[in-house]
């Protein structure tokens, strides 16, 4: 084993564990509001980009369009969203939050803020900046290893 591998090994594990714990806490909060995590994330995506198609939503929440269709059906039945015809594509429908949906998204944002504050407790501003910078660089490095990056290298 390369000597650096042993030293760096915990990073991937820690990133995975932190992400898993964030997901678990958000799932618990979503359940407290009678939602699944996928429904919670869908509401957030619709809030972030109103007038979004089902296909776009699928990309935002990393799900297939048929799964998103079922999620939207349930959210619409609860009165959290409304769907309407796309003005330029009669085959597509767009989604937007209702007043009740907006209220729930506001609660979700508060929960998210509190969760992040608790997770970052004890870290100085400089440590937070370093953490964000490091994780951003790792994400960008990993994105640059994908097939798109390989195609760009071949084109040069």
From TrEMBL:
Stored InterPro entries:
HTH_MarR-typ, MarR/SlyA-like, WH-like_DNA-bd_sf, WH_DNA-bd_sf
The chain positions of domain HTH marR-type read 8-140
Q: Which SMART domains match?
A: HTH_MARR
Query: Is Transcription regulation one of the keywords?
Result: yes
Which Pfam family, an example, fits this chain? MarR
Q: Which UniProt keywords apply?
A: DNA-binding, Transcription, Transcription regulation
**What residues form the membrane-spanning segments?**
none
Q: What is this protein called?
A: MarR family transcriptional regulator
């Amino acid at each position: 084993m390369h000597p650096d591998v042993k030293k760096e090994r915990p990073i991937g594990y820690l990133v995975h564990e932190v992400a898993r714990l964030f997901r678990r806490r958000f799932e618990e909060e979503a359940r407290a509001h009678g939602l699944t995590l996928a429904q919670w994330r869908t509401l957030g995506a619709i809030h972030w980009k109103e007038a979004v198609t089902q296909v776009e939503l699928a990309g935002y929440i990393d799900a297939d369009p048929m799964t998103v269709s079922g999620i939207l059906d349930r959210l619409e039945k609860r009165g959290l969203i409304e769907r309407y015809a796309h003005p330029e594509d009669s085959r597509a429908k767009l989604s937007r939050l209702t007043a009740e949906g907006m209220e729930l998204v506001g609660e979700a944002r508060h929960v998210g803020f509190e969760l992040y504050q608790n997770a970052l407790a004890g870290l100085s501003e400089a440590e937070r900046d370093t953490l964000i910078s490091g994780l951003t660089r790792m994400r960008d490095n990993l994105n640059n290893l994908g097939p798109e990056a390989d195609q760009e290298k071949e084109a040069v």
